[in-house]
Amino acid sequence: MLGRPRKFDENGAREVAMQLFWAKGYEATSLSNLLAAMGISKSSFYQTFESKHTLFEQCLNQYRDILVSTMSEGLANAPTPMMFIKHALVDVANDTNDPLGRRGCLMMNTASEFSQRDSNIARCVEAGIQATKDIFLQAVKAAQADGDISSNTRADILADYLVTVVSGLKSQVKAGASRKQIINTAEFSVRTLQEMA
Amino acid sequence: MLGRPRKFDENGAREVAMQLFWAKGYEATSLSNLLAAMGISKSSFYQTFESKHTLFEQCLNQYRDILVSTMSEGLANAPTPMMFIKHALVDVANDTNDPLGRRGCLMMNTASEFSQRDSNIARCVEAGIQATKDIFLQAVKAAQADGDISSNTRADILADYLVTVVSGLKSQVKAGASRKQIINTAEFSVRTLQEMA
DNA sequence: GTAATATAGGACCAATTAGTCCAATTTACA
DNA sequence: TGTAAATTGGACTAATTGGTCCTATATTAC
């Protein structure tokens, strides 16, 4: 290996950037914001990350990877698949207390901000959503096998339903809903799965 | 009345601006975009609407008023309250074919874009959501009286649930979901209301 | 020591932004 | 005809944007 080694942690800096994009959105996060938060100079930034847009795509992928692995572990470690599903919904209520603000979900925020004008980003968002849907699908099938959810409705429809409800809950958090509201709605949604014929 | 009368239609121009803000968001809609779409000069713009931000607040209020009155009429004219609820959900599927793009809901888009950094806007969004929730609440109570929805769950929780599901469906549309997916999810959500114990 | 690379910092750039101001013109009413 | 108001269009600002380039310095391996 030749030359002076990189002093800052590239992954750490990307993580910081991701948090910023998550909290403020792409356009509202200026280069100055990024440099200040990442603690590096403009020179290092462009040498390492090529452009703001490239960095954002990396952040989006990183967010998706973390989300997917967190959910997968959650499902694997949950007492039952049904408990995983319940936790996934009810846990959104904690977002109302997030000290970093009501940030929602980076993928859904991105879909809202500019998946309409950047097909690259749009594909990335769709892939991310599909990945989370697949985990829910796995959980639903297992819960149906356990008898916790009726098998009268196709598992893929229930997985779509779960993704939709989580999206909706996250949206409501951003729109100012109270913790109690989110809990009530989440718990009711869980009941709908349990009590459907 | 003194002086030269206004040549362009103020409400019409505001409507055009609303459509732009709805499709592109606040920041992504530049003044040039607005002037071109509204068909007026910069001078007329500032004389009539004070600022981009002021105009946006007016558009948000107008959107809310139209949404509320559309929903109210929909409920009043529906064969049954339950049919109104079903239509409100399933109709979101048509957003996938909107020639103006997958715009979502201006209020939710706004919540996502910057209700975190503008308390004025945040209050406006919350009021708008509350207004739609109230209409759903009315519909739910009526449907419970009709026996179309069980009275075992509090009507206000069901109203929150409906707002959440609609938000989620609109989010999914923006994120690229297919028409069929939206219909399936919407119809399943309706069934959850009908078949809950 | 030298080559190779990373660093910080600043000059610079072209474009865009929202917004102000002014001058010239048009349209109404009294 | 005169006054009040709306019109357009362009000049102009101050700020910000993402991005490039250059210089000087620091740090490593060979």
Can you walk me through this structure?
Chains A, B: This is HTH tetR-type domain-containing protein. Chains A, B: InterPro entries: Homeodomain-like_sf, HTH_TetR, Tet_transcr_reg_TetR-rel_C_sf, TetR_C. Chains A, B: Pfam families: TetR_C_13 (PF16925), TetR_N (PF00440). The structure is a homodimer of 197-residue chains. Chain A has a single domain (57-195), classed as Tetracycline Repressor, domain 2. The first copy, chain A, has helices spanning 10-24, 31-38, 42-49, 52-77, 81-90, 106-114, 119-146, 155-174, 179-195. Helix content of chain A is 72%, strand content 0%. At the A-B interface, helix 6, helix 7, helix 8 and helix 9 of A face helix 6, helix 7, helix 8 and helix 9 of B. Chain A binds a DNA duplex (30 and 30 nucleotides) through residues 1-8, 30-32, 40-44, 46-48, 51-53.
Major β-sheet of chain A, in short?
Answer: none
Distance from N terminus to C terminus of chain A (CA atoms, Å) equals: 64 Å
Q: Write the CATH homologous superfamily of chain A.
A: Tetracycline Repressor, domain 2
CATH fold assignment of chain A: Tetracycline Repressor, domain 2
State the CATH architecture of chain A: Orthogonal Bundle
Number of helices of chain A: 9
Give the chain pair forming the largest contact, with residue counts: A-B, 49 and 49 residues
Protein name (chains A, B): HTH tetR-type domain-containing protein
GO molecular function, one term (chains A, B): DNA binding
Organism (chains A, B): OM182 bacterium MED-G28
DNA-binding region (chains A, B): 30-49
